[in-house]
Every structure is written in structure tokens, then in C-alpha cells.
Amino acid sequence: MSIIASRLNDSSLKDEPLEYIEDTPFDSSDTDAMLGSFYLELASRAKSSLHNPSAISKKALEVACSETIQECEGKDVKQWAMMDFAMIRLKLYLKVELSEFDEKIYEEAKKNIRQSPSIDSDDDKGFNSGNFIYAKV
Q: Of 130, 37, 26, 18, whose CA–CA distance to 83 is shortest?
């Protein structure tokens, strides 16, 4: 079971339709809620950009989110790179043929993910903890 699926299954939203989940407020300091937020943003983007929105299932979204989280784990990745990576993974899961433009987007997202700093990396200038960079004294 994917990370997103297991977290959604453990929540009170597990049996709710996607429309109800979209309308449910969340606390932005809650990691599970932020994962749910990424899931909903991906669902929204997929519905607006794919030719057959009815083919988008919860399972497909969960797989794409889970693969994205696994790829970005431990790194401070820009949101656009995560979303682009997730959209392409979703298209691959749905067996949508990728265009040349999709392939370029995918390669750029993977490159950005690879080059993203580790969340708790230590270097000569300081260390990075989340979005804050602390200098060594």
C-alpha cells in the first residue's frame, strides 16, 4: 500500500468521495494533511489537463503521489518539480502516451529532484533544515 493510501486509510476521510475530501479544511502544520493537499492538487491538475478525466482513479493518484514522495524523500524539492514528476508518473500509470514536451518536463523535474539539497545536509557553509539555512559559527 502506498504512503498516501495508508495515511488516507487511517484518516476519517478514507470512505469519503473525492469531492468531500476537497471541501475538508486542514491544518497546514499537519504533515498528513499536507500530503492530502498534494494529492488534491494533483487530482485537480490531472482533471483539468488530461483528455479523459474519468480515467483518473483514487488508486492512480495514490500511486503517483507515493512514487513522488519516494523519489523526493529527504530532499528539499521545489513544489513545481514534485508536481511535474507526479503528473508524468500519473500519465505513465494511466498508459497515456507521453509527448516530447512531457518527456522534457519529466527530465527537468528529475534533474531538479536529484540536485535538491538534503533536508538535513551538512556542508562547509552551514546546514539545511527544511526551508531554513543555518550558518556554522
A: 37
Distance CA 115, CA 74 (A): 12
For 75-107, write each residue's pLDDT tens digit: 999 999 999 999 999 999 999 999 999 999 999
CB contact at 8 A, 56 and 94: yes
If you count them, how many residues does the chain have? 137
- Amino acid present at 26: F
Q: Which residue has the cell 489537463?
A: 49
- Cβ-contact 7, 35 below 8 angstroms: yes
CA atoms within 13 A on the CB side of 32: 11
The residue written with cell numbers 497515456 in the block is: 96
Q: How many CB atoms lie within 10 A of CB 65?
A: 27
Q: What is the dihedral of CA 80, 85, 91, 97, to 10 degrees?
A: 100
Residue spans of beta strands (DSSP E) within the chain = 126-129, 132-135
pLDDT of residue 121: 56
User: Taking 90 as the threshold, does the pLDDT of residue 112 lie above it?
Assistant: yes
C-alpha to C-alpha distance for 68 and 104, rounded to whole angstroms: 17
* E strand map for 19-125: none
